Amino acid sequence: MTNWTWGIYLTQTGEFRGTVQVSDCSWASMLTGQGRGSHTFPLTNNGRDSDWWQESSKGNKFTLVQRWGDYVAYAGVLGVPEYDRDTRTLKIDSVELRAAYMDARMLFGVFSYTPGDDALSVASKSLSGAAHDVLERSTTSYWGSFWELPIDLPSDGSGSFSADWGMDERLTLEDHLSQIEAAGCEVFFRPYLDDDNYLRWQTIVESKVTVGPSVAEVDLDAPDCPVHGLKVRKDYTRQLTGILGFGKGGTDAAGYGYSPGDGAAEVSVRDTWVSFPDLTGDRLEGAVEALDYLNYPIEQWSFGASVWPDGPGWTAPGRQIDFTVAGDEFIPDGTYEKRVVSVRGDAGTHVRVEVQDAA
Fold this sequence. Notes:
Blueprint: E1 4-10, E2 16-20, E3 24-30, E4 36-42, H1 50-56, E5 62-68, E6 71-84, E7 89-95, H2 97-101, E8 118-125, H3 127-139, E9 151-152, E10 161-166, H4 173-182, E11 186-193, E12 199-206, E13 211-219, E14 227-235, E15 242-246, E16 256-258, E17 271-275, H5 281-289, E18 298-306, E19 319-325, E20 334-345, E21 350-357
Parallel strand pairs: 9-12, 13-19, 15-17
Antiparallel strand pairs: 1-2, 1-5, 3-4, 3-20, 4-7, 5-6, 6-7, 8-10, 11-12, 14-18, 15-16, 18-21, 19-20, 20-21
């Protein structure tokens, strides 16, 4: 027995439509907002007629929420329903909000397009402030009520980020968010249910997203340790000793060279070039310097975790987990501060988690 429940919500308003039963499912929630799910619903003897299911399975209009108690582990915008008449089941594939909507929306409607006009200009903003302005323009009633999504805007504020985005650049909302992230942050949309049982998404903009309410502590040698099957993977394939960045104008324009530091001093030269085709000047330089992490191998831990009886909240994307290790044959003794970058599960009491360094 688990405490999982499932519900259907209107994507545009977050309004609750109804509880549903699931016979099989798989889901993944990611810091990048690219997680996916697949849920199968038995249609016999559930008190719902064909009209209800025809309406409630409409893609983009509705979002499926899988939660444990009050904690939303996965919220997926419906995308591909498939009915199996032999088994009288409906399987629906879904994707997280960022994957579903951000690349399918510009900052203006198609009838507002005027070559040479600004889509949006931001001046001397913090990265959170820049994301605030982008989302305010594209997910609120600025253009009308049909643009609204139940997203909590991040905090506004001043800083060093400035940009003039033209309509003729034909950028999507995802393009704008990616440019802001390239300046040295992450943008995460955390789903939750408010006090009135409406689905909403909190926007978190940080250099490395972390979520509370507290740090989870795991002693890998404790007899009641909930972690099993831990694997430590180090990826050296992307390690670089120098980066030459090109922006607008491609290789015909001046490039910006940057050496990440001494993390790769033990290896022979691995200098290469990268492209940020929408950036110039300080924003290009900032995006190249934000690749500093490629100076070192990317280390990722993955493991299975039992979430019974307290639930999967401690494995949420962005949650910090401090691991204590002693006497291991490969991992040196110490405490390792990690944060969750993705979590996968089904309808059971175990999840699969991937973590990277929190700092």
